[in-house]
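Interim report, section 4.2 (structural modelling).
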Amino acid sequence: MDEILTGKVIVVNGPIVQAVGLTGIKMFDIAEVGPHRLIGEVIRLNGAIAIIQVYEDNTGLKPGDEVMSYTRPLSVLLGPGLIANIYDGIQRPLVGISEVCGSYIRKGIKLSPLDENRKWEFQPLVQPGTDVREGTILGEIRESPLVMHRLLVPPGIYGRLTGIVHGGDYTIKDDIYTVETGAGKYTGKLAAYWPVRKPRPSRNRKKPLVPLITGQRIIDTFFPIARGGTAAIPGGFGTGKTMTQHALAKWCNADIIVYIGCGERGNEMTDVLTDFPKLIDERNGRPLIERTVMIANTSNMPVPAREVSIYTGVTIAEYYRDMGYSVAVMADSTSRWAEALRELSSRLGDMPAEEGFPPYLATRLAEFYERAGLVETLSGRDGDITIVGAVSPPGGDFSEPVTQHTSRFVRCFWALDKMLADARHYPSISWIDSYTEYLTEIEDWWKNLDQEWLTVRNDVMNILLEDHRLEQVVKLVGSDALPPAEQYTLFCAEMIKNAFLQQNSFDPEDKFCSPEKQLKLLKGLLILYKKGLELVQAGLAVKDIAALEVVAGIVRLKSEIPNQEFNRIDEYINKMEQELIALKPSSGGR
Amino acid sequence: MSAEIEYTNLAGISGPLIFVDGVRGVGYGDIVEIRGTSDEIRIGQTLEVDEQRAVVQVFEGTSGLSVRGTRVTFVGRALEIPVDRNMLGRVFDGLGRPIDGAPQVITDRMMNVNGLPINPWSREYPRDFIQTGISAIDGMNTLIRGQKLPIFSGSGLPHNRIAAQIARQAKILTAEEEFTVIFAAMGVKFDVARFFIDSLEESGVLTHSAIFLSLADAPSIERLVTPKTALTLAEYLAFEEGMHVLVILTDMTNYCEALRELSSSRGEIPSRKGYPGYLYSDLASIYERAGRLKGGRGSITQMPILTMPSDDISHPVPDLTGYITEGQIVLERELFNKGIYPPIAGLPSLSRLMKDGIGAGRTRKDHGQVAAQLFASYAKVKRIRSLAAIVGEEELSGLDKIYLKFGTAFEEVFLRQDYLENRSIEQTLEIGWKMLSLLPRDELYRIAREDIQRYYLPQKEAM
Ligand SMILES: Nc1ncnc2c1ncn2[C@@H]1O[C@H](COP(=O)(O)OP(=O)(O)OP(=O)(O)O)[C@@H](O)[C@H]1O
Ligand SMILES: [Mg+2]
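Predicted structure of the assembly:
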């Protein structure tokens, strides 16, 4: 049995509390503080003084109030029932809380993160008497129509399976199996705790080779991310971080989504909560909520719990990864997490490094993104976690510490551009400042679709880069001063921006664009560029090409041609080519 | 609760803070009553407590207090104010005490001014369009019932007039429901407050409005509670009485400065421009007190006003506000200097809740695309204008010149309107189409073909 310690509060400084008398308490143990037994965690030990970070509103707490601890680390409860659920930063169920105390979150509420009375239909997959080891799949539960939940032998457990229940309905409180280990008998249930700050082990890391398809053209085509990769979305307020993360959470082809609202708006979580049960995933005809777990520690909820929220989220992601799934984690916003870190460290009197952030900011960020990856799990299956973190730089200035450090630890950088957002060019991901390091890894996947993918992609990218260079000149002399071929490049770049890069999340057809459709559009635009350029070089005026209705109409293909009918784009482009050829000046030159 | 004990003598005074030694049984965040030699009662709140000492912020400021002879009572709970329907039509100070000469509000309903965080699961996503009668807002930056939409302004710009016009004209197209205004002034001059009171009176809403004043001559620390007091009443009226409450908070920059003052007198490590690192969370605890609740009838719509020091939108106050609110209405000096009212900037303004509150069945089907097209085309105008400034207007291409014409018309006809002019959403969209019809059809690539077919005007009529 756990030991129970009691002590008393001596100092209250915001959510940081000092207590004495808790002899034997360990770092990261949970402490219950004061008459409301507020949940806290020991974050520092100073001789006889335990420094506790309290995860709930602690106004009214007094020196002399009691503190107690079962000397257990702050943990996440992992088991069936996580899917479609929404939790606060320390995994308290928000639905349950609302049932207990209405629309507002009161302090001191203790509820199990998982429904303890719900019966799950469990199907065992191994016989008693088998030798099992960590990661062995013992059985399955249909957690949601989209998710088959696999019950695994927990890390560190090896031995003979001495008993397992028959197929049937069980709750998470029921004993399900026993393993005779070298160190004695281990009894397992459908759910188990795992310390929130400790990464779950896997066998080994692998190189990710498959892109995460997001349906967002600028991402999939120009700055793709691999399944198991990391990406940051930095951008000033209102530039589209949340919208991009919502779009990814909706349409990317991961098996499980963990959406972490970390210090952001309440209404944005409500948006997810109202939208996801209604939105249907075209791949399987099921509502998106059936593959989604939500963590909501909004900006007005206690700051310390915001700091934990991303660990809670990523631990849940690892749990599903270990079952062999592909998991995508959205963390909005990692800057709010970093600020929570800063606030707490300043209350602790730490010496600050840059801009008041603690010196360990970079290490913490690195540790977080390190939990992404494609791995061979303990079960032998592959599983992966992709992490996409929003970054909210003060004043939109990317030279600040959180953006800078994050860019060192992620391999995809989707930089949002205020100018694009102001012009309502969405997604306002800059094609100049963004980058990805996954191109070579995922190239083969695309080449399976089309051998020329990389060439086409690079050719179009070069038009955009050339456009960027020419824009600097145009700013000084106007576009009419440029030679016709360069004017034509500007024209085509504009077409690429409007017909390809720009993508409206609210357009029923355009919100998701399949890889096939992306490729067709891209190739069509490249044909426009190449064929048109020949004509312009032969003396045709740019405005004559621009005047063709079939050319102007390219911008509408994205919203007028459905994903399944992507071949119609070829027909359209053929027609365009014919009309272009018909424009050809009879004899070269004017 | 333990019996109230009175302590005499302070261990020290620093800025708005007092230090009291030898206290027992005092909670973090507790309310404190302070009596100086004059016997007038001031209110404070504990910020930090340990076994020997309590650190207390005094909302009325510490001026006139001395270390000796000051008596301090720890009340043993957080700051509460009475809340009641009868508070409508009344004027209060920042701590919710009447200052209009009329008697105390009689009620036994008391509420903690700090409020509690709304459970995100219990929120109802706001979707009801509020028609403000201002084209720049209704057409392009729609206000939604339950939204928090600030006005980013600069000194001398007409933010107060715009807010007053909104308070006067705001209406929901679909329903007649109880509508009230709560106005909280922090550190502004009396004439600003006077202006609001007068314009609420003219439009006949003063009798169902409540006013909280912590004016420029009040101690700066009092500004820190004023928005909380106002929002506490708003929460009561919205979520218990089912009213639709518009809360105007002005000027949030003064609020933030008071917070900076408090932080520096506590010796905290400052973050950008001397503001504390927790400014974001502190502002969020105010701005997030807006919205709607599942199953509830009422709503809180917040319209905080702030002045951007030197018109700098990247200053921490507008910056952190923009990171919390659901968009922003930005006022632009250039338009103001051209004599355009309301000088609502075309590009940086944004309403994030617009997308779900407009369209077929709410406003009109083409609304979203018209707005997107106006934004995109106006962005192009801005680019062409800066080019024209260099190469001269004559050097521009024919299309560019058309855009310049569109730009001028957009500012003079669409944006510009009278302080008393109340445009319906249909009128706004009609003017929007007039503007867009100045451009060639092919330029309207953000709009569906059938809507162009339907609304695009032949060239002559567009002029
Ligand atoms: N892909 C998109 N399609 C259509 N509209 C978009 C898109 N991306 C962003 N927007 C518009 O921009 C607004 C702001 O986007 P979003 O809320 O994602 O910004 P953000 O970067 O998360 O800002 P903050 O840091 O303040 O949270 C949205 O409300 C929407 O109107
Ligand atoms: Mg956001």
